[in-house]
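Example 3.2
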Amino acid sequence: MSSKPRGSGYFGEWITDPFGLPAYRYTCDHEHDPKAVSPVTGLWRPPNEHLHQVGNDRIIGVASNYGHVQVRQDEGGPKFLNDQDPAKGVHAGGFGYLTDGETVLSTVYPSHGDSFERIFGVGYYQKVVAGADLVADQVIFAPFGDDPILISQVTITNNRPAPVDLRWVEYWGCEMYQFSYKAFIQGLISKKTSVPDLRRAINRNFEHRFAPIGTDGIMATKRFKGLPAGEKAQWAITAFFMETFFRKISGGKVRPTVPEASFEDLAPPPTFLVSLDAPTDGRMTDPATFFGAGSVLDPPGLHGPLGMEFGTKAGIGGMFLERRIHLEAGEARTLYFAYGYLPEGFEQDALVNKYKANLPSLLQESCDRWKAGRISLDTVEDSWIDRELLWHHYYLRGNLTYDSFFKEHILSQGHVYQYIIGFQGAARDPLQHALPFIFTDPGVVQQILRYTFKEIRANGSIPYGLTGCGMIQPSPFAPSDLELWLLWLASEYILATRDAAFLDEEVPTYPVYGRKARKARVRDLLAREFDHLVNETGTGRHGLQRLSNGDWNDGVVHGNVPPKKVGSVTKQGESVLNAAMASYVLDHYARLLTFAGDSTGADIAKAKATAQREAVRAQWAGRWFRRAWLSDELQWIGETDLWLEPQPWAIIGGAATAEQRAALVQAIDAELRQPSPIGATLINEAVEKRTEAPGMGTSAGVWPSINGTLVWALALADGAMAWDEWQKNTLAAHAEAYPDVWYGIWSGPDTYNSHFSPYAGQTIFTPKEMETGAPSAWTGNVKIAWTDFPVMNMHPHAWPLYSLAKLLGISFTEEGLELAPALPFEEFTFSSPLVGLQKTAGGYKGWYAPAVAGTWKVSITLSEDSVERSMTVMVNGTGCEFDKQGSIISFSGANATGRRLEWEINFD
């Protein structure tokens, strides 16, 4: 049995770092260990590259086990500021070199040292290389907050018995790699040029310019030279055909609707590299000269000191800073560098000076801030649980970026969708990723909501996805569920925080700029979405919400229905999933309207919820609910197979009767949960699909975004089973079940292959396409596997946080707060800035801290062993009258500005 902490997997182990935070010590020699290799297409990344996120509210560093760090920046359009294309002499940077003139130690793996340690931390990436009695310890971190900057902290130690003169050269690249969806579209129809090559070709249209920053650093800017005539013509032809095709399906436009929108960033922000603690001793900007034809581990440019050169050869730019230091025997010294960019609103001197002020404590202060303001759970005996919650909190918040078109922060789904295909979507994804922030930082929720409101088109529809700078993604998908997610998050946010004033905030709507831009109040936009759901999406012959060409499941029609029959399904299809979800969401929206004083609107929403509940109840197939009605010809799916997606919502929304719920939970447990060690499968049998192999993706894969709702539903029926399902969906469970799969240990994809697949525990790839070179069923000539970028998807990070709140039975009503704890522990403490709950042998304690002062009703369902015990209730330190109805205790109390409502139930 492994002595490593639970969930460590094969590639390293979980540790507690010097800051008291969880960190992953990565120990794999990925260049020689065959277990490091994943099945990839070979087009996007090496098969043995493993990635970690280094982020704050603005910037994301994608840190590689090879030692380099690529910086993602979203203003003007998502991109890497520093591409990694070593075959072309382009090196991302985020590494450096230590030399005494003979020995060279680099923080590029594997270096020439005797040892090379890598730590994936909360907001940082640490690389420690040692050799020849010298040590270079480089920590690259994103300071907590909203600044577009990474700090490189380099501690150099001389363990020799004599003094030594050393040089450190810090390197960061500045060749862009835009996540251009325009290039992706062109790649779909081209057999000659790959999408990565098309994206890299964009750089040829920019001119590098470098300038010194005093004696401390380098500023790099890019000037757009214009598109060559051939590229303009090629794109014009592509745009015409693509716009014609996509307009029929989803209304997506290939050409910008306003000048502020674009597929690509033609005015990227300046980047800079600065020495923070002392002036530089040398600077250069020419990677071709520095790296030459030699190895990146021992570049010829390191053989002599750097001068003060500001030019490039071969059109490739980069930034090198040299520092020379003298160390006595046993002495250590820390150097500090800053790499960042300057979007609108930031000025280089002010930004850099902010971090020069307190260099030795920067990393400690940043790490301390990651500990606060989060969701936590203390169960005494299972310390790995709270370790994972803290890690999820970091990965989720560290994925925030800023969209300069909508002028809001955004939580992209990330993963293959953002980093390879090049779009932010589907629109439902940021909305569900924002749910945990209701408990931790309501300001983030507001920004995600505003971002989505600003997408809404005049007819009330929400685009499937966005790309570039404010461009609606041309997409074949026109899902029918997007309004539901927006209504849900807005209702949950306002009821939880009591921020009714948000309803009257005015928000610009798409296209945001120009004469067609309009403004609308939040309450009116929600009403528009309700109207679009009810009257435009509408219902079908069975009274169920319409399906369109997909709901949550993009593959329920595409890939599951013969292409020639998609049109008829789009016209006739109905979604039991949408209807079951609507039965809850529309009731929740009605609670919001009641809280806001709109009783008439609330009654209408309740009536629609009731109609959907009844329509779902009619689709009981004996042990579960049907999945969808496709058409007169294709009829129902989900009569003989158990499709998971609608089942949790049927319980949550109250469509399932008590008898149906009992049978449904039993079927889910036996058919979907028990056979799988990493959470319930989407279907109880692997379905043959042209787009996915059996056991992968929507063909009976495992999806954290669906299993999050399953945990919630099970918490209403069987607390022990719900807790078991929550644990099965953790990173730790995946690492224990599939220790040789590197992703799923510290981050993961949106779907794992289930036990039905011969590649269980991995994520989507198509072996036949890789072996034969056949076109992809989804993307034709553009080969994509989910294994090409199998981490930094936000579903496996967001849902464990939010579903944990549902294991506490936390529900917000128009009157206050309800709690019905389902955790199978005698004692526990759940904590968040908004809500807390502690259970002990002596009773319960809790708090509620909405943003607005008021008096709120609190109800809690007691455990069975507590119901008959005599008790007293204290509210804000004073005895309080309470009402007891069976196992439910209710009382009222007030919070005030800066003071939360605190309460206790003490058993006598």
